[in-house]
Amino acid sequence: MTREEDALETGPLAKLEQAAGKVRSIELQAEQGCTSQVRRVSTETGTYILKSATDSRYREWLRVEAERLRRNTGEALLPIPKFAAFHEETDGSHLLMSCEKGTTLTAALKAAPPEEKKALLRSFGRFLHRFHERPPVESLAHDGDWLEERLAAARLYLERGQSEGDGKLLDELVRNRFAPVRQTMIHGDCTADNVMVHDGEVYLFIDVSGMTIGDPRYDEALAIGRFVDAPELLEPFYEGYVRYRISEAELRYHEGLYEFF
Ligand SMILES: Nc1ncnc2c1ncn2[C@@H]1O[C@H](COP(=O)(O)OP(=O)(O)OP(=O)(O)O)[C@@H](O)[C@H]1O
Ligand SMILES: [Mg+2]
After folding, report:
1. 10 Å Cβ neighbour count for 117?
2. From the CA of 196, how far away is ligand 2's center (Å)?
3. If pLDDT is split at 50, 70 and 90, which confidence band does 1 have?
4. From CA 197, how far away is CA 103, in angstroms rounded?
């Protein structure tokens, strides 16, 4: 047993083995998110990613992520990892999913020379364009308005002291809504950290707890947020993402909203 296997208590490990077969090795992933601990697990049936959360809010997000993956069945498959198992203990939740090829776009960009960076951003734009243009899948359908729900959730996080945004900003966001656009499938946390690259192409979303039907301008804002002051990267993105180009004000609005999550 490695140190990692020791660290994972026997309860989750046994459940894991029920779903994925006998464990051969468990390693902490080099790239870690902020909300969970991510391990790569090799078993007799293949290689998986095990994402574990202990904080109650992040456990809830992980439960929703598991549900998104689990319901991704049928013919119109979304480009997201495959569900393997989800297990809730008293002090932690654990999601087991397929380990997908490649690296995050963030990691790919770090390693790429300038011309390749442009190609990666073009690919990111194309990938997001295709996703926003697809007819929404049934399993993401929900009642109510996406923005209303996000603003209400922001208020709740703020009241509980779980959010970095401030009350004045939230009041402005509530007052200054834009005219609605046609709602599409959205990823909901569409940064370069949450898309995977293989063979030079962006091809998959990870971290999908926010995936729903909502305002595509939110995805667009998060996708370009880090590149707005780098036209040599922004322009290639828009060669791929040709369906709409958000205004400065729309960008600021959606970045403001993101501060609460
Ligand atoms: N299915 C997968 N296949 C391969 N690698 C993955 C997979 N899921 C996650 N990873 C790796 O684990 C890292 C963290 O995953 P993820 O973004 O889901 O975690 P997180 O804690 O939710 O992050 P965040 O703080 O952004 O919410 C990713 O950067 C990626 O390197
Ligand atoms: Mg992430």
Report:
1. 19
2. 11
3. very low
4. 6
Instruction: Give the mean model confidence (pLDDT) for residues 143-165.
Output: 93
Mean pLDDT of 36-40: 94
| Paired residues of 184 in beta bridges | 214
Mean pLDDT of 42-64: 95
For ligand 2, the distance from its centroid to the CA atom of residue 188, given in whole angstroms, is 11
Residue 20 to residue 237: CA distance in whole angstroms: 38
Share of the chain above pLDDT 70, in %: 96
Q: Which residue has the higher pLDDT, 254 or 9?
A: 254
Alpha carbon distance 260, 20 (integer Å):
36
Q: Which atom of ligand 1 is nearest to the CA of 97?
A: 1
Token reading at 196: 């995977």
Mutating to test ligand 1, I would choose from 29, 31, 38 the residue with most ligand atoms within 8 A of its C-beta, which is 38
User: What spacing in Å lies between the alpha carbon of 175 and ligand 2's midpoint?
Assistant: 30
Looking at domain 103-258, what is its CATH homologous superfamily?
A: Aminoglycoside phosphotransferase (APH), C-terminal lobe (3.90.1200.10)
**CATH topology for 3-98?**
Phosphorylase Kinase; domain 1 (3.30.200)
Ligand 1 atom nearest residue 191's Cα: 26
